[in-house]
Amino acid sequence: VVEEPPLQLIFAFCGATMDQLRADNAQLSQQVVLLTAQVAQMQAAQPGRKCPVAVPDKFDDSLAQFPAFFGQCQLYMSRRPEDFPTDRDKVGFLISLLSGSAARWATPLLTQPNQVLDNYAEFCHQLQAIDGGDD
Fold first, then answer.
1. Which residues form the DUF4939 domain (predicted)?
2. Nearest-angstrom CA–CA distance, 99 and 62
3. For 97-125, what is each residue's pLDDT tens digit?
């Protein structure tokens, strides 16, 4: 005749097993939190992707070159939308690529409040018109 273990022993064993499972679960939960933080850190530390399009050459006042310059700027900005989320960012980028009389034209826009800095389309229209290229 096989004797059954007393119920107290069974309850004690089940209680110890449950305690161990709770401890294991808590440890696994901590590991998930740590790994999630590490993944987020690694994703944040990833180097920015390289843009396969070169930064356009500087633009002076050669109106004949404006369409090519403007097209190159559009292409560059379209490949890096995260760098140009606002009209002001786009206008600033274009101004940074101006030289000669085009830069002299844009300088006053930067030295005093001017709404054209927040209106990319209007800025481009005015830039194209500086040497009488307005249609």
1. 32-132
2. 10
3. 999 988 998 999 888 888 999 999 999 88
Q: What is the CA radius of gyration of the chain?
A: 32
Residues in the chain: 135
pTM of the model: 0.60
**Over the range 22-56, which residues count as b (16 or more CB within 10 Å of their CB) and which as e?**
eeeeeeeeeeeeeeeeeeeeeeeeeeeeeeeeeeb
CB 116 within 8 A of CB 123: yes
Q: What is the pLDDT of residues 14-40, one digit of tens each?
A: 999 999 999 999 999 999 999 999 888
∠ CA 20-24-28, rounded to 5°:
170
Angular region, 24: left φ>0, alpha ψ -120 to 50, beta rest = alpha
CB atoms within 10 A of CB 119: 16
**How far lies 63's CA from each of 34, 37, 42, in Å?**
58, 53, 46
